Amino acid sequence: MPHSRIKAVIPAAGLGTRFLPATKAMPKEMLPVVDKPAIQYVVEEAVQAGIEDILIILGRNKNNISNHFDSVPELESRLTDKGDLDRLRKVQESSDLADIHFVRQGEPKGLGHAVLRARAHVGESTFAVLLGDDLMDERDPLLTTMIAENERTGLTVIALMEVDPDQIHMYGAAAVEATDDPDVVKVTGLVEKPSKEDAPSNYAVIGRYVLTPDVFDILERTEPGKGGEIQLTDALQELAVTTGVLGVIFRGRRYDTGDRVDYIKAIVQLAADREDLGPDLRPWLKDFASRL
Fold this sequence. Notes:
The chain contains eleven helices and 13 strands. It is of the alpha/beta class. The strands form three sheets. Strands 8-11-9-10-12 form a five-stranded mixed barrel. A two-stranded antiparallel sheet has the order 2-3. Residues 7-270 form the Nucleotidyl transferase domain.
């Protein structure tokens, strides 16, 4: 069912330095995961949750992203003439997904600043933020659950996932209190990338948020935090102690494409599960693993 009142925001202005030199001229969000760029999976997730209006926050040299979601008449005409209707459908799919808009961040001043750039487009409505580094398996719905929780309570909702305590320094960490629902917690505090010793829990904030519009006023006055950037976590911390923030605990399959090793794992896992690739790939993987 379309959620006409909710728009999605996808920040895609990062420099992608962990993937250099591949990202010297290509946005990291356009790196292929099997046969689609990573950002297309994220857009598809928003669409599957019923969102029809999507804003992508771009940085410099990110025109490839807007080009990908635009039509390509010359290519489509050539595929039509060749009768290659299957590839034609795949090419047209990305430009027909949703009503997609673009705005530039200018300087990479952090996730909080990127979200703030969406204010003119979002207005005074609740909106979803989806980070392009995190791919959620379409078989394990998350965003629809978060939207439903926001509709039930009117509160900001963030996605949480239990991680190994030794990895919590890579994430924002949440202090939580249980609710009557084992998959929903009350967030009482947030810390950006704490040490294992200072982390309030091993519940990590992963890249899905359903935010109420009052976050914009907080971001306007949020000073740069860790890394000299405006951190969304700092704004969420203020919301947690004022109006309230809920966390939906995700127990499904998540693929981190922001790390080189995890990016390779994501490709292998998704390809192995596909009906068109899995039957040939899985036996080869077993044979390859046996020789290691």
